[in-house]
Structure formats: C-alpha cells, structure tokens
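Quick one: structure tokens for this chain, please?
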Amino acid sequence: MKNIKQLISLLLLMIGAVSLTSCQDEVMTTHTYRAMVPIFLEMSDIRAKTITVAPPQELDNPGKIYLYGDYLLINEPTKGIHILDNTNPANPVNKNFIPIEERGLGCQQQHPLRGQLCGSSGL
C-alpha cells in the first residue's frame, strides 16, 4: 500500500512537472503593420477655409477615381483632387486641380495606451 501511494505521488509530480514546462510561448516571427488614422476637423474650421481651384496639373500618383455626372474626380494622396471632364470617355480633358493642405501628414498626437498616432490625409 505504501508503494502504491509513493508511485501515485511520483506520477502526479511528473505530470505536474511536464505540464508546467509545456506552457512556454516562443515568438518566431514579428509583423509590422501600417495603420491609417483619420484626421478630424471641426465643421466650423472646414466652413472657414477658402477652397482654391488651380489650373490642371499632371497626375503623378493617382489614387481613387470618383464619377460625378460628366466629371471624373481623381484624388492624388497628400496633394489634392484632379477634376477631369469626362463628356467624351475616350478622351477625358484635365480641367482643374483642387489642392489639399498637408495638415496632419505627420504624427499629430499621443495616444495614452498605443503611443504615437500617425495620420495620413490620403483622401
């Protein structure tokens, strides 16, 4: 009877030792993510600004394309919006450019838990 108690105690000790050593987490790879953080403005700030329309410019790095009536609105991230007349879809005409100020392209604030927040206006 004494041998059985010792055997059970030894068996429980071995199971406990094996189960505690198998709980290690080894990180083999790391991943870096880029997150876009929205930049908010007060409506009064937006209404107070004067929107300027500039002459047409060449598209260097076109982004998303929006169709509004006979016009194509093509954003160029961090620069502005190109306005093209699409009356003749085979030959759209570059009409104007609306520059967008580069407010908030860098890191603009600290988040108490996540550290520095970086935003991009990427229309």
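The helical segments are 2-21, 43-48.
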